[in-house]
């Protein structure tokens, strides 16, 4: 009986994470659908729907989100905003949000920075350190043949770069070619573990100890905010800190 509460707590935490993920995915679909309800002619919507399906969201839920966005209901109230700031150790951080109240959102983001020893910056203060890329990741482990197959298929599909490290092989693309490269890799029998657009830093800041822990806590605090869609930084954190975060 002593194990019951622990199992229940873990289930509640998992349900909360799943609910948070679904909220982000629904917002992305709703806003993306403003550009057209047909995913064949709206690459952003196609990508948002693919992410939702990968997360096991029902087709009915996806279709309702598309209708809300394309019909201008609910989705018309949301706007996309991006904030930039610095964490402990001078780490650069980009935060992408969708909100119906900028005042509330910027207040929450500023509070998160101040709680962990960082500060919110002006527009353009750190964004120049990042590049917008498509990232298609494969868990290749120690399988050199699999990593080589990913490399060959990615280059044939005109990917920008392929990087293999720590058991992962990442295919990097331009945002506008992301879907085409992903489809070519899937057609070749390769199943990505993750596939999304992301802001990648041109250089990283290596942190250890208390600073690394503070940055990990700041990134987690920002990601948990209701209006935040994604958080990106140029922090290089130790594996133990990344795992704990």
Gist of the model:
With 245 residues, the protein is of the alpha+beta class. Helix content is 45%, strand content 23%.
Characterization of this structure:
The protein is of the alpha+beta class. The protein has two domains: 4-76, Arc Repressor Mutant, subunit A (Orthogonal Bundle); 78-245, Alpha-Beta Plaits (2-Layer Sandwich), CATH 3.30.70. It contains eight helices and ten strands. The protein has helices at residues 4-32, 43-54, 59-70, 102-115, 144-156, 178-187, 209-223, 239-244; strands at 79-86, 92-99, 119-120, 130-139, 161-165, 168-173, 194-201, 205-206, 228-233, 235-236. The strands form three sheets. Strands 3-1-2-9 form a four-stranded antiparallel sheet. Helix 1 runs antiparallel to helix 2 (43-54). It is globular.
Poorly predicted regions: none
Strand order of the largest sheet: 3-1-2-9
Strand content: 15-25%
- Quote the CATH topology of the largest domain: Alpha-Beta Plaits
Write the layout of secondary structure elements.
Layout: H1 4-32, H2 43-54, H3 59-70, E1 79-86, E2 92-99, H4 102-115, E3 119-120, E4 130-139, H5 144-156, E5 161-165, E6 168-173, H6 178-187, E7 194-201, E8 205-206, H7 209-223, E9 228-233, E10 235-236, H8 239-244
Parallel strand pairs: 8-10
Antiparallel strand pairs: 1-2, 1-3, 2-9, 4-6, 4-7, 5-6
Task: Provide tags for this entry.
245 residues, alpha+beta, Arc Repressor Mutant, subunit A, Alpha-Beta Plaits, 2 domains, 4-stranded antiparallel beta sheet
